[in-house]
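Batch job 17 of 40 flagged for manual review because the log was empty.
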Amino acid sequence: DTAIYGVSSIFGRFLNYLLVPLYTATLSAASGGYGVITNLYAWTALLLVILTYGMETTFFRFANKADEDAEKVYSTTLVSVGATALMFVAAVVGFLPSISSALGYAGHQSWVVSMAIIVALDAFQAIPFAYLRYKKQPIKFAGLKLAFIFINILLNLLYFLILPAMKCNLFGIYDDHFTLNVGYVFYINLVTTGAITFLFWKELLCIKWRFDWALLKRMLGYSWPILVLGIAGILNQAADKILFPIIYEAADQQKQLGIYGAAVKVAMIMALITQAFRYAYEPFVFGKSKDKDNKDTYAKAMKYFIMFTLFAFLAVIAGIDVLKHIIAPDYWEGLKVVPIVMAAEIMMGVYFNLSFWYKLIDKTIWGAVFSFVGCAVLFAINFIFVPKYGYMACAWGGFAGYGTAMVISYFVGQKHYPIAYPMKDIGICTGLAAVLFVAMLWHPFGTAVLDTVYRCVLMMVFFVVMFRREHMGEMFQKLPVVGRFFR
């Protein structure tokens, strides 16, 4: 089951990634279209956390209690999340002109209401998806997730590529003046999300609907800290894209945000690689810890995580002249943020790996504290520097925010749950990666092909040095799929 959830998640993210070259190729940077997509989907990410208010995790907690009726927990959760989602949509529709104007989309109210319905449906769907996991139905879970992505991609290809090539409008009628409208990104998403909702007919109709107010109050008491943690976490990821059009007042704000958003997507290649590594490696590490001290295992997992993410960082930098073609040439000026964003992603991963200490001692409030401190740093840098330096300040804000949260979590954790992390090894690894990164900034040959080869050689220097230093042959041999290449 875990394998199905993990592989479907990684594969799904990769497929969704294919929309990036489509959007940037058909929506020019100057049009600001991708900036609109970046901004509204950042709002969606934040609102989704708010509208689920931790009830997905809370459902698992209560459904697995021996003294609770799992079906009653499920129906109560559905009613609660469904009711708040409906109230949210009603509020947006009721105040649509004011909300659209405040967001900067006064002339595009349909975009705003579409995104409101999408996020409401996504929040509602989170509970049936959780129910599928509770019922151990990974095939249907993964199938619905992938069905959404496939349908969404196909409809986007139809609208952004096929219809313009055929010079046909949405009704299939020849139209020599047919032009693309970024709003159809949201309309397509709405249609696809609605279609998936109907596929939950069994989970919605074939249950005994009950609502227990006393149960809901107990669940809300458990869920609110999760909501706080969720808001803090998502603000660190999305706040810069939400704030940018508000703070950066130049006429080309959507163009600049689109360039930044596209460049961030290039950097997210490393996140995909890292997720795949964690899925493959962490079960191996923690499986080896049964007869050992867990603290030693956590320390080892941290070291290898940092080593691998730094290797992935160098791999992306080495291949940047190839990878940049994921986005259209008029977005390339934003590529200078890629190393900064990837470094921030590494620190976010380290921060996530550090988080287990306060979970083990049941002090999850620390997670909210660290996240909000990091978020405060991000907000401060954005408000102070974005007006002058634009999206570069957004990138450095994320770097500083995650770095602050990571450092504070480490030092506080060492007081409450001390772990002897191999700081010398981590320092050597990080230092070597930094030196090689600086060397990669030099272009000795002046041609893309030879310079890429040069950077790839430097990348392999890191791999060989770390491989020999850490004697990692046995570890790599036991990894699934790729292990045979190291035997």
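Reviewer: the log was empty due to a logging misconfiguration, but the result itself is present. The chain has a mean pLDDT of 88. Unflagging and moving on to job 18.
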